[in-house]
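Bug #2210: token dump truncated for Sulfurase?
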Amino acid sequence: MIRRCCAPARTFPSVISGCWRPPTMAELHRILIAPRAKASLQPALSVEAIAGRGLRGDRYFLATGSFNRAECFTHGRQLSLISLDAIAECNRRLGLALPAEEFRRNLVITDLDVPLLLGRTFRIGDIRLRGLRHCHPCRLLSRLTGADMMDGLKGLGGIRAAILNSGTLYPGDPLRLE
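Reproduced locally. Full output below:
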């Protein structure tokens, strides 16, 4: 059951906290990219998002990711998002303190349950994105972290999104629904 703890006109439920939060509070917290499969994700102060391709310098943009295939760009490997709350909940479930980099998602978002973006067009800063599908945890993530990420991230893995226009993303950019 979702309890109502704030009353702005346009709100969305938080599955994790059970609290209602206005989407205007959501923002890009961290940008993380890796140049190749299994390489450690590194924080970036900014990243160029290329429409239909991905984040410049990231493994899937460079076609060096673990799951690269010909349909990679059209089926949602342009970028991935996860909420900071989901990371905290996974760590709570597993009794760990894994940093955001260990979750292998490109963008960490604050104050919004990322799955609410599925099937929706939204903006982060000046970049338009479309939420495509869930980003379920995989065994590779468990092997790389040494933790049962399949269980820890159950229902919390984030989403994959398509980039609709090119531009630059920065931590602190607001997330807005269209």
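Output looks complete on our side. DSSP finds three helices and 13 strands in the chain. Marking as cannot-reproduce; reopen if the truncation happens again.
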